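ARCHIVE CARD
CATEGORY: sequence design from structure
SOURCE FIELD: tokenized fold
FIELD CONTENT:
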């Protein structure tokens, strides 16, 4: 089981996937083990802290757009509510300055193999890169990230794939590799 030993960055899809635990009749093809891994990671953050956000609030805004603040019925919703309530608690959340520039950030790594990295997800990478400890990014089901994992590692960014088999299979399916 992957654990953030100190603090980590959480892609929104981790919380969205965690919410599938409350929908057993879901038509989702995400395996139960993947849902469980997402639930486990978010519960650890909620109980112990250990989150990294951008100081501008873009990551939190994405959480709100996808999860809201009801805090229920799933762990993903509870996570969004926890972030709202604790985002200013320096013991639980680091807030990192990043600078937006057009469709990217000054802190996004300069690597030729990252040129096509999704603009909407660059904030997660920029925050990791700007943080003095380069905390890992938790990723659940976004298969596009699988194709960038080596380039990200080359610039010192760690991505913890909570559902590696699922993501690898989806990436292979989409890329025809």
């Amino acid at each position: 089981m992957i654990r953030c030993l100190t603090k980590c960055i959480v892609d929104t899809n981790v919380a969205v996937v965690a919410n599938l635990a409350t929908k057993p009749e879901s038509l989702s093809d995400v395996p139960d083990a993947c849902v469980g891994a997402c639930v486990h990671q978010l519960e650890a953050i909620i109980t112990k802290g250990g989150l990294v956000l951008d100081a501008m609030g873009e990551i939190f805004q994405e959480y709100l757009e996808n999860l809201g603040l009801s805090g229920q019925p799933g762990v993903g919703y509870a996570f969004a509510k926890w972030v709202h309530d604790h985002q200013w608690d320096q013991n639980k959340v680091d807030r990192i300055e990043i600078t937006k520039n057009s469709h990217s950030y000054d802190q996004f790594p300069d690597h030729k193999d990252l040129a096509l990295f999704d603009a909407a997800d660059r904030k997660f990478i920029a925050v990791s890169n700007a943080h003095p400890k380069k905390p890992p990014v938790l990723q659940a089901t976004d298969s596009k990230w699988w194709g960038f994992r080596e380039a990200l590692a080359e610039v010192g960014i760690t991505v913890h794939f909570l559902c590696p088999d699922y993501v690898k299979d989806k990436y292979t399916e989409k890329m025809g590799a």
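CARD ANNOTATION: The radius of gyration is 15 Å. Residues 9-175 form one domain.
SHELF: design records, drawer C
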